[in-house]
Write a structure and sequence with these properties.
Blueprint (H helix, E strand, L loop, with lengths): L22 H4 L5 H20 L2 E2 L8 E4 L2 E4 L6 E2 L29 H18 L11 H8 L19
Antiparallel strand pairs: 1-4, 2-3
Helix pairs in contact: 2-3
Protein name: Protein kinase domain-containing protein
GO molecular function, one term: ATP binding
InterPro entries: Kinase-like_dom_sf (IPR011009), NEK_Ser/Thr_kinase (IPR050660), Prot_kinase_dom (IPR000719), Ser/Thr_kinase_AS (IPR008271)
Amino acid sequence: MDFMGSFPRYFAYVMPFYEDGTLTKVLPSMHQEMSDEYFVQLCAAVNYLHNKKVAHRDLKTDNILITEKKVLIADFGLSDILPTEDTMATKRKGTVVYMSPEQFLKRPFDPFKCDMFALGVVYWCMVFKVNVLSHEIEDPMMETVRNRLSPSSIDRFKDFSTESSL
């Protein structure tokens, strides 16, 4: 990245154009060896961030750039610089289908572990050549996560019995 100049009233981030685009774009043509190679690079990059106490908070295939068989993590707009590795977060950030389940429990969670969960979803996308954001979700639990089921909407099930009639 090159320094392009000073903008006193604006914050600007200027970066090179990456012709290969995002991981989302190359998913359909990836083979397993390439998926594994990219995933090792991603793990090293996330490890570097976490060692610097940075939690990305929005890892997903759209935020991973591909250039010359290398991966670059982009879009640090939701990232946090945390004082220690033990710092817990309370605010959900990121893209719902990449979020770890603990972010929906309304109690403090480890943002570094949430990055690791998102990294697992990214790898799943790489292995199965699927962009989770562009497919219909058939699993009811994932549908719930995707639509951010609110606790108040659960009231409609209050009269259901937990006993089985079998």
